[in-house]
Amino acid sequence: RLAAALEQGSSHPLAHAILEKAGDDKLPQVNGFRTLRGLGVSGEAEGHQLLLGNQALLNEQHVATDDMTAEITAQASQGSTPVLLAIDGKAAALLAVRDPLRSDSIAALERLHNAGYRLVMLTGDNPTTANAIAKEAGIDEVIAGVLPDGKADAIKRLQSQGRQVAMVGDGINDAPALAQADVGIAMGGGSDVAIETAAITLMRHSLMGVADALAISRATLRNMKQNLLGAFIYNSIGIPVAAGILWPFTGTLLNPVVAGAAMALSSITVVSNANRLLRFKPKA
């Protein structure tokens, strides 16, 4: 109840889960609410000083968590995110929150793998939780325990290795990383800051949309190259003939009617090939 009261002022996904669990319970009013970036939240309710967040938050505030360490590790190894509640300077509760992997997320990640992309999870969660989820999802690399400012730095490091990075995110904390990436992709329903920062905004909150966006991008680039090749072939044949290259040998010149027809046919070929992209169907 006190944890849910604190989370009323937060937009974090974990906050939504805790509030949903509280249901219709009447929650006390919170005073002095503060968001502690990368750590959690704090405030006062019913005369108690409250802290809610990860183990690092309680350690920073000198709240002993030794009695909970074993359970924290156990929950994290199962892919759950441990959320600790401290009341008046003492650890009072441990909440384990997990958002199960959607079946379409695993399928989308598999599509990205098959397309040759290397998948990296960049998260503020603790490494144990992140690695458990990454193993289940088939993600190649995990960069965990990263504070919001550190996400952009992590992308800089990847770019310094010569990699081109596409960042997918939906939260306020993802905005610097979305701006730093070569391509920023905001998920539908994400924060306004993330959507404004990203180069691409997906209309649905699904990783399948990421796979679709990259697939149609590749198809578009391939189509452009085909169109350039087609136009080059028409012009490389038509222009020399029109200039009289065959005249010394065969006495042939390009009839203006034929030249006009060839030019029109070239345009029709390019447009028809480009229209094939209209048949692109996103996977469900």
From TrEMBL:
Q: Which UniProt keywords apply?
A: Cell membrane, Hydrolase, Ion transport, Membrane, Metal-binding, Phosphoprotein, Translocase, Transmembrane, Transmembrane helix, Transport
InterPro entries reported for this sequence? ATPase_P-typ_cyto_dom_N, HAD-like_sf, HAD_sf, P_typ_ATPase
What are the TM regions of this chain, as residue ranges? 228-247, 253-274
What is an annotated GO biological process for this record, any one? copper ion homeostasis
Pfam families membership: Hydrolase
Gene Ontology molecular-function annotations: ATP binding; ATP hydrolysis activity; copper ion binding; P-type divalent copper transporter activity; P-type monovalent copper transporter activity
Organism's domain of life?
Bacteria
Name the record gives this protein: HAD family hydrolase
Q: Where in the cell is it found?
A: Cell membrane; Endomembrane system
Topological type in the membrane: Multi-pass membrane protein
